């Protein structure tokens, strides 16, 4: 019998539910599907007989407490994960389970072999020889970011409930919305959560603990062009696609995710839509150093301001929106969590 026998079934159940966040929403949480999923998690926490299970109205998080089963005074430890998934197809997720992976074979996600996980492209696959892997069929995201964290925390709580001889201090847990769009952290109610220290269970290799955060901003560039017939375009047309390309070309060439590592910052364009008369680009701006982060935002806004000055005699313009938040990324494996709690 597996030590955490409900871990994979819970995970597979969780990822079937579309809980994508909505960056254009003004509600908290940003999507109704997150609201409904968090209610289900609240019921699961109640079934586990946790105390003070409630949904915080400020943030949309569900909080709960597992009381200590020791008399010693120890810090209250919290574990947090988010329920929303990234902006990619989240419907009809079809997970595949590869048991005892050999660490070298190409994994065909779909029957036609159009989508693959190849160790030559993803060398980290070699680390998982002998492990069980869960993948999608290539047409959707999997939702492991961060349904895996949710399932792990639920399994930890179930383990402690089933093994009262394993001693631990007071444990706080929180499952929340809108991490992918930044607003979840903005609205998190620290006082209501009530932990002395806390870990976000979210991705990373088994046993890996990150204790440092980065500064992040989301930026959206909206360009209004001037569309006329190409035969009459000279001196009149302003092609919004070309303006977008000109904007992007002024960003530092090597400050991109694919050319940076560790604490190096970057500008990351993650969406582009365009026609001659209208174009939009979405960016992530990120840097560990706060001063360099602010300088990146100034550079970004400065490019937009200068291009608007260049367009002043036309009917075209750039609109720029930069929203800033600090995304805390701390990862702790469930095994390491249990070891830390057992030591207390």
TrEMBL record:
GO molecular function, one term: tripeptide aminopeptidase activity
Keywords: Aminopeptidase, Hydrolase, Metal-binding, Protease, Zinc
UniProt-listed Enzyme Commission number(s): 3.4.11.4
PROSITE patterns tied to this protein: ARGE_DAPE_CPG2_1, ARGE_DAPE_CPG2_2
Recorded GO CC terms: cytosol
Residue ranges annotated for the Peptidase M20 dimerisation domain, each copy included: 211-308
Protein's name in the database: Peptidase T
GO terms under biological process: peptide metabolic process; proteolysis
Parts of the chain that traverse the membrane: none
InterPro entries: ArgE/DapE_CS (IPR001261), Bact_exopeptidase_dim_dom (IPR036264), Peptidase_M20_dimer (IPR011650), Peptidase_M20B (IPR010161)
Annotated signal peptide: none
Cofactor(s) required, per the database record: Zn(2+)
Catalytic activity: Release of the N-terminal residue from a tripeptide
């Amino acid at each position: 019998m597996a030590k955490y026998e409900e871990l994979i079934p819970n995970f597979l159940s969780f990822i079937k539910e579309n809980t994508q966040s909505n960056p254009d929403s003004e509600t908290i949480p940003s999507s109704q599907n997150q609201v409904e999923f968090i209610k289900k998690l609240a019921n699961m926490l109640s079934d586990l007989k946790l105390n003070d299970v409630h949904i915080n109205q400020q943030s949309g998080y569900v909080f709960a407490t597992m009381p200590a089963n020791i008399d010693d005074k120890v810090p209250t430890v919290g574990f947090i994960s988010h329920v929303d998934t990234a902006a990619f197809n989240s419907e009809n997720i079809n997970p595949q389970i590869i048991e005892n992976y050999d660490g070298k074979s190409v994994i065909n996600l779909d029957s036609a072999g159009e989508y693959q996980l190849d160790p030559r492209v993803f060398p980290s696959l070699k680390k998982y020889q002998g492990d069980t892997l869960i993948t999608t069929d290539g047409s959707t995201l999997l939702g492991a970011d961060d349904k895996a964290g949710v399932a792990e925390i639920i399994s930890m709580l179930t383990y402690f409930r089933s093994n009262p001889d394993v001693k631990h201090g007071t444990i706080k847990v929180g499952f929340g919305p809108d991490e992918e769009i930044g607003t979840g952290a903005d609205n998190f109610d620290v006082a209501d959560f009530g932990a002395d220290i806390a870990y976000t269970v979210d991705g990373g290799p088994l046993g890996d603990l990150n204790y440092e955060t980065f500064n992040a901003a989301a930026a959206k560039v909206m360009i209004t062009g001037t569309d006329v017939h190409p035969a009459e375009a000279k001196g009149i047309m302003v092609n919004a696609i070309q303006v977008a390309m000109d904007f992007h070309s002024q960003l530092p060439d090597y400050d991109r995710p694919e050319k940076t590592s560790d604490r190096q910052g970057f500008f990351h364009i993650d969406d582009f839509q365009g026609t001659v008369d209208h174009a939009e680009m979405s960016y992530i701006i990120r840097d560990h150093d706060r001063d360099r982060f602010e300088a990146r935002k100034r550079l970004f806004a400065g490019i937009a301001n200068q291009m608007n000055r260049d367009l002043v005699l036309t009917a075209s313009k750039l609109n720029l929106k930069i929203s800033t938040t600090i995304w805390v990324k701390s990862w702790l494996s469930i095994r390491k969590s249990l070891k830390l709690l057992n030591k207390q």
